[in-house]
Amino acid sequence: MAGPLGPAFFIPVTHPFLSLPATSLDDATHALAEPGALPLGGGTDLLVTIAEEIARPVVVVDLRSIPNSDAIVELPDARVRIGATARISDIAHNGLIQDRYSALAQACDVVGSPALRHMGTIGGNLCQRPRCWYFRQGISCLKNGGGSCPAVQGENHYLAIVDGGPCYVVHASDPAVALTALDADIEIASTKGVRSVPIGEFYTLPRDRLDQETILGSGEVVSGVVLPAEPAYAALLQALGERVDAVAKDLDVYAEDEPPPDFSLDTEVEGILREANAHRFDRFHLVGYSGGGASSLAFAALHGRRLLSLALLEPAWAGSDRTRVEEALMRRFRALESLPPDQFMAGFVRLQLAPGVEAPPPPEGPPPAWMAKRPAGVRAFIDAFDAGDLDLDALRAFDRPVYFALGGRSNPDYYGLIAGRLAEIFPDFTLETFHERHHFDPLHRIEPERLAGSLLALWQRAEA
Length: 464
Ligand SMILES: Cc1cc2nc3c(=O)[nH]c(=O)nc-3n(C[C@H](O)[C@H](O)[C@H](O)COP(=O)(O)OP(=O)(O)OC[C@H]3O[C@@H](n4cnc5c(N)ncnc54)[C@H](O)[C@@H]3O)c2cc1C
Ligand code: SF4
Known about the structure:
This protein folds into two domains: 68-130 and 171-227, Uridine Diphospho-n-acetylenolpyruvylglucosamine Reductase, domain 3 (2-Layer Sandwich); 234-463, Alpha/Beta hydrolase fold, catalytic domain (Rossmann fold, 3-Layer(aba) Sandwich), CATH 3.40.50. It contains 19 helices and 15 strands. The protein has helices spanning 25-32, 46-51, 88-93, 95-100, 102-109, 114-119, 122-127, 133-136, 174-181, 234-240, 265-278, 291-303, 324-335, 341-350, 369-387, 392-396, 412-425, 443-446, 448-463; strands at 2-3, 6-7, 9-10, 18-21, 37-40, 59-62, 72-74, 80-83, 185-190, 193-198, 221-227, 284-290, 307-315, 402-407, 429-434. The structure holds flavin-adenine dinucleotide and iron/sulfur cluster. Flavin-adenine dinucleotide is lined by residues 38-46, 63, 84, 88, 111-112, 116, 119-121, 123-125, 127-129, 172-175, 216, 221-222.
């Protein structure tokens, strides 16, 4: 049948309403501007609240029919946008999300049940109504217009134990917790356009208003969630917690679309100096992974007095003083250079794994924008390693604690030899081997708690 807003049909639940499949975001926001219109995601909560007579819509505007409204894409500036109708299960299994925002993938993976994850959308999950038993059963309480909160004396499992009152309801969304830790932004659309707010400002407290749990105004709808770029170290920073004032820095080689034409390790050393000075770190602990580890070594050789300690997570280079085995490996890296980008990257990954270790599968879907920069950046680093020199005497004089994390499944003729060489150079050197890990399932993402523990121990010793 057809309704005043276009094609529609009736669903026979306790309260009749029209269902309108939106054809575009513009279409949806105009429909939602009408009184009595509510947005529909997977319907796993909305249909229940209608049955519970908490929601009484005249029309529900189905957002899932908006083309690409469920897309998970990397934006040109390396942030990642999740469309509001992306299913919870699709987010949990998306390679890009698993790779770069594992906390979100894990949070989505524990939502309710497989059926709920399959039907539920991220927009609906973030905007689901609270699950307080009294509220859901229609028992008089503050949230439905009553004069007091029966949960205070009654059934209050799972309600707020800190900062509650006068209503003690908590939000049920697991993804919202991960998105808060990741500093995500919520994109909000209406007929006036699209605005964006940090998720920390998206929810309201019961003491501020009782009738709803978000700041969404009349006719506003969540159109997407945007995750910040460079969260590769988010899990580690979270594990370190507020005990440390940590700053994650991306490599300067990836700052622009192409590496700087005169790129060398000095470029990265200058980048570390710039970041440290910008944060007014006089002396600090430095942690570097892969190319960042090589850059950290170069930094220690040039500016060792600025460092309290040095942590190296499989640095990709440790000077030109290489063994014959390492020289042979460098020739094999060089031989890859004539290959097209995808074959170059596949060969580059293989050379860094122990024999027999399988390379991780590429993320699902189209390759993200940041990946396009990788081949040129890797080539620039290989050139810099070949041309670079490391002042080993300066490293021998570096008397601060040095920590080296080695993956047991990484190429022993590469990272194992580097670890062995550095063990003989640094006077205070500790090696920790993570037997199940390799260079491409790095500790800061896969075992952030364990790595955080090792780093905190290193830093405590350095500051003692
Ligand atoms: C038994 C059970 C267990 C559950 N366990 C968990 C759990 O462990 N963790 C967890 O996180 N969740 C849990 N949930 C909640 C479940 O995940 C939500 O029902 C689901 O995520 C809602 O998604 P949906 O797309 O179906 O929302 P819908 O039902 O379509 O919508 C929910 C609400 O959000 C509004 N809405 C929908 N889309 C938007 C949008 N884009 N913008 C603004 N408003 C919108 C709707 O109008 C409605 O008010 C559980 C639910 C049940 C029934
Ligand atoms: S906690 Fe809030 S929703 Fe639950 S009974 Fe009390 S006032 Fe109502």
